[in-house]
Amino acid sequence: MSKIKRDFIVKELRSLAGLMLLMAIALGYIISYVKITPLAFLIIPVIVAAFVLRMYRQASGGLTEYSELWQERVGREYAAPHPVYKVAYGELHLLDACLVCRSKRRLIFIPTEQIVRVDKRFRSVGVKKVPLLKFRLDTDKTVDIDFSAAHCESGEAVLSWLNERLGRTGQ
User: Which terminus of the chain is less hemmed in, N or C, by CB atoms within 10 Å?
Assistant: First the structure.
């Protein structure tokens, strides 16, 4: 499990570095153009602190409901070679025990034994139909996994993998 958390944190920190660089450039332009005080740059550390706090909460949240044995199994499967697909703002790791998804600044665990149904929906991005998978779990929880417009084919690949493994998914 620590490798999953570490990967999530590293990828989020890379994203944070890019965002903060762009913010510093924008603030530099605003400061020079509007002639406000350079103390406006102090907002960057505040935003970084809030982002890092939220990132650590996301990395550790949701794991307390699963047993230690299950977490060890997921950690072993994650360390072994497995299929990985691109989703909106992240990736989806297909493991036998669960699906591990880093999407939209969240770390999501979807245990395969809890999946009752998978509904395939679409959203329009320009002229493309981008897939969206809606997982219904036996805990009455639903989880939406949104795929990126650049990797539309990932949705079909994930759905066929689920059909192979579970055999009980719906469309």
Answer: C
